[in-house]
């Protein structure tokens, strides 16, 4: 029987998205080759960042790092590399995207596999991570030097499946992010999940509770928020909920774009999802900078708030 050892380290889960569409469009042989090559490349990047790939998990991987700074740099490198992975010949396909979760804590190493609370938390955080996103626990961010902590913005304390107590989670906003005042105190995130979402478009200004989900966004007059723009599908996107959190799901051909306040990065959704938090803009069919008529203002609300603040 193998002897177990314990230690503290960073646990990373990374998951490829979009492979199903590739199998449908390319066929099993070509799609399998592309996905396998993509995973091999991700593994090489992890190794270059002084991480160890513990195991492959379907279209993803689990890795551990002794150095938290290396884990952050590797997460950024993984996202950057994947943007270039689809060859020009297949640019008509939905691009492969990546979501990453990071947690820090004690693990138990048994015969090369890893177990423990940090592993469980990282896996659960990955379930709530949107495409193109890296989410990390507060404990992980605390393990970084102070100058690195400012690359993260607090989302909330999320209720993870299988855990009684919520876990503080932060979002990596990139190494070009330099506003040091934007990082919220790690202890100040509210414990309770959000109660509703406010959506503003034109003359429409409505607050929806979690009991009113799903919310349909689109050009159809029957949509909860009707956006009359030529780039917008009749049922373009929907906002749904799970475990007390709100998710945006793209249903369209032209895509849905999300930009959170005080964050220059724009998330591009094409038949996939992201977690909504804080406030910002949802743009249907074209980025918000291209078509202001097709964008919707959103704010995640706690009904105990008396006056939501708008920029």
Structure description:
The chain is α+β, with helices and mostly antiparallel strands and 311 residues long. It folds into two domains: 5-182, Alpha-Beta Plaits, CATH 3.30.70.1230; 196-301, Tumour Suppressor Smad4 (Sandwich), CATH 2.60.200.20. Helix content is 21%, strand content 37%. It has six helices and 19 strands. The strands form three sheets. Strands 1, 2, 3, 4, 5, 6, 7 and 8 form an eight-stranded mixed β-sheet that branches. A six-stranded antiparallel β-sheet has the order 10-9-19-18-15-16, with no helix packed on it. Strands 12-11-13-14-17 form a five-stranded mixed β-sheet, with no helix packed on it. Helix 1 (19-26) packs antiparallel against helix 2 and helix 2 (28-48) packs antiparallel against helix 3 (68-82). The relative contact order is 0.11.
Main traits of this protein?
single chain, 311 residues, alpha+beta, Alpha-Beta Plaits, Tumour Suppressor Smad4, 2 domains, eight-stranded mixed sheet, six-stranded antiparallel sheet, 37% strand, globular, disordered C terminus
């Amino acid at each position: 029987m193998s002897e177990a050892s314990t230690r503290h380290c960073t646990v990373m889960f990374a998951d490829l998205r979009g492979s199903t569409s590739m199998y449908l469009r390319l066929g099993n042989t070509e799609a399998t080759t592309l996905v396998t090559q993509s995973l091999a490349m991700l593994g090489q990047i992890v190794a270059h960042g002084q991480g160890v790939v513990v195991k492959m998990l379907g279209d993803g991987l689990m890795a551990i790092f002794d150095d938290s700074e290396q884990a952050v740099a590797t997460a950024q490198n993984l996202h950057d590399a994947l943007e270039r992975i689809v060859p020009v010949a297949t640019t008509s396909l939905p691009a492969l995207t990546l979501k990453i979760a990071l947690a820090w804590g004690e693990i138990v190493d048994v015969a090369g596999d890893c177990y423990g609370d940090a592993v469980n938390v990282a896996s659960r955080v990955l379930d709530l991570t949107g495409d193109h996103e890296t989410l990390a626990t507060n404990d992980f961010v605390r393990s970084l030097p102070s100058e690195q902590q400012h690359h993260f913005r607090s989302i909330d304390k999320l209720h993870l499946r299988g855990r009684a107590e919520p876990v503080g989670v932060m979002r990596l906003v990139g190494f070009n992010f330099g506003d040091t005042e934007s990082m919220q105190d790690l202890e100040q995130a509210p414990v309770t999940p959000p109660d509703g979402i406010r959506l503003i478009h034109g003359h429409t200004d409505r607050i929806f509770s979690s009991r009113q989900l799903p919310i349909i966004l689109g050009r159809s007059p029957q949509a909860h928020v009707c956006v009359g723009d030529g780039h917008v599908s009749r049922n373009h996107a929907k906002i749904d909920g799970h475990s007390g959190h709100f998710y945006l799901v793209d249903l369209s051909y032209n895509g849905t774009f999300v930009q959170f306040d005080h964050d220059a990065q724009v998330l591009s959704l094409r038949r996939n999802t992201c977690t909504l938090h804080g406030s910002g803009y949802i743009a249907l069919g074209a980025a918000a900078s291209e078509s202001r008529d097709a964008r919707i203002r959103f704010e995640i609300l706690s009904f105990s708030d008396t006056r939501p603040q708008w920029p």
